[in-house]
Design a protein that fits this description.
The chain is mostly helical. It is 84% helix and 1% strand. It has a two-stranded antiparallel ribbon with strand order 1-2. Helix 8 packs antiparallel against helix 9 and helix 13 packs antiparallel against helix 14. The chain is flat, with a radius of gyration of 44 Å. The chain starts with a helix and ends with a helix.
């Protein structure tokens, strides 16, 4: 049955198959012409490829010839430059025109000496080239000595224009020590400014009698001045020495900066008797019952402010140096190993064993003790002066507590020192958990003098006390204090 069905289907498709065969017969002549066209295209493509190969070979030959011509021109130019530098240096040295001589030597140092020596065609030309090179190297050596001497003379006479001029000559002579000598010159300026700033700060402190923050202002002005020096001199150093040398430059300046910034902080410690006051407060906190020699909170307020400003300025200056030097390292140093070493030197300079970091850490330790004492005294006073506020569901203790703690924490945050911030926050949390929690415990003072918890309050209310409204208000206020303090 299946066979018969398939046969019937084939018979029915007979006409369609006949039409397809007819169409193929009609297309056959076209296939012959397409084969002919494809053969012609293949022949043309083959000839074109052969021609392109020949042309490219000639282009390569021309490129090689052009490169040789350019190399030859460069060698000829180098030889002419060498002769010009030799004659120019001799004339400039005889007339003591050292700046022009440095220009010729700089031009000579840019010449490929190996190519010039290889380009010599005979012994006479080779001897002349060697003589010129020898003369120029001797001139360079002499110029290095002269530039060093003249630079030192300019430094001694405080001739800033001559200092910068000779600094440029150091770079043109490829003298790396020029950058160090220029940084040493600037470090002397930093030293003078540091001494003057410290003297003014001490004078202002004596005149203000401790009511202002002269030492914090002095450190701010001093570090800002050093930042301006780096900002102004960095483009000059990059122009002649290239990027990647800022760290070496700043390391020299930072030694003098660290010395005088530390002197300012130590002068503040001595003037404010920070160590003495800190020990006095520690004794007071250990002997809580003693009220003798109790420090005045009004005298501690400006002291705390000045400590936070000193710390903040030191952190800000360190951040400025880190950003500038890291950008310079990223741009100027490509070797990963050298870059890693430079980053290590940077962190060692900023966070290592420097006297300024040690001094800041010492005053921050004193700040934590002082702030703990101030918060303790203020909160004791707030607890003692706790009163009912008309129209408020809580007493004055809640607002006073949060005002005091907020003031102390914000003061610590302004120091930009993580140790101070964390310590003050921990101190505030301890105060809330220990002292404030005890003072706002849900207890109600009854007229008879006894204390009652919730169950006692309910039983007494059932007895019909006449002062029910007063007791209820007091009880609810203490409950609100608990809720607001989240105890």
């Amino acid at each position: 049955m299946n066979v018969e069905a398939r046969i019937s289907a084939i018979i029915m498709a007979r006409d369609a198959l006949r039409n397809q065969v007819k169409a193929l017969i009609e297309v056959e002549p076209m296939l012959d012409s397409a084969a002919t066209v494809a053969k012609e295209l293949h022949d043309k493509t083959t000839s074109t490829a052969i021609l392109a190969e020949k042309v490219s070979a000639k282009v390569r030959s021309l490129d090689m010839a052009k490169a040789r011509v350019e190399e030859c021109q460069k060698r000829v130019g180098d030889i002419l430059s060498l002769q010009a530098c030799h004659s120019g240096v001799v004339a400039a040295m005889e007339s003591e025109d050292y700046e022009t001589a440095v220009g010729y030597v700089h031009r000579f140092l840019a010449i490929d000496m190996a190519a010039i020596k290889g380009a010599a065609t005979d012994k006479f030309e080779s001897a002349a080239t060697e003589y010129a090179v020898k003369q120029l190297l001797e001139a360079k050596k002499k110029l290095c000595e002269v530039v060093c001497l003249r630079f030192d003379e300019a430094v001694n006479t405080k001739d800033a224009a001559s200092v910068e001029r000779y600094f440029k000559m150091f770079a043109m002579l490829n003298m790396e020590e020029g950058l160090l000598k220029f940084a040493s010159y600037l470090s002397e300026e930093v030293s003078v400014i540091g001494k003057e700033t410290l003297s003014r700060a001490r004078l202002e402190y004596e005149e203000a009698k401790g009511s202002k923050t002269p030492f914090a202002n002095a450190l701010t002005n001093y570090l800002e001045h050093i930042a301006k020096i780096i900002d102004m001199r960095q483009p000059i150093a990059e122009t002649y020495y290239g990027p990647g040398h800022l760290l070496t430059f700043v390391e020299v300046l930072q030694k003098e900066c660290d010395k005088h910034a530390t002197a300012i902080v130590k002068a503040f410690k001595e003037a404010g008797r920070i160590d003495s006051v800190t020990e006095q407060i520690k004794d007071h906190l250990r002997n809580k019952s003693s009220t003798l020699d109790k420090p005045d909170l009004k005298l501690l307020a400006p002291m705390l402010i000045e400590i936070t400003v000193l710390s903040a300025r030191a952190e800000m200056y360190a951040g400025f140096l880190r950003r500038r030097i890291m950008n310079d390292i990223e741009v100027g140093i490509k070797d990963p190993e050298i870059k890693k070493e430079s980053n290590g030197r940077l962190e060692s300079m900023l966070r290592g064993h420097t006297s300024l970091n040690h001094c800041i850490q010492e005053i921050i330790s004193s700040y934590i003790v002082l702030e703990q004492y101030v918060l303790t005294e203020k909160l004791k006073k707030a607890i003692t002066m706790d009163t009912k506020i008309e129209g408020s569901p809580t007493s004055s203790l809640v607002d006073d507590t949060f005002f005091v703690l907020h003031e102390g924490i914000m003061c610590a945050i302004s120091s930009c020192h993580i140790d101070a911030i964390c310590s003050v926050i921990n101190i505030a949390a301890c105060f809330i958990e220990e002292q404030i929690a005890q003072s706002v415990a849900p207890q109600v003072a009854w007229p008879t003098g006894m204390m009652a918890d919730i169950s006692q309050a309910y039983s007494l209310l059932q007895q019909g006390r006449t002062d029910i409204d007063k007791i209820k208000t007091q009880f609810l206020r203490l409950q609100n204090n608990n809720n607001d303090c989240d105890i």
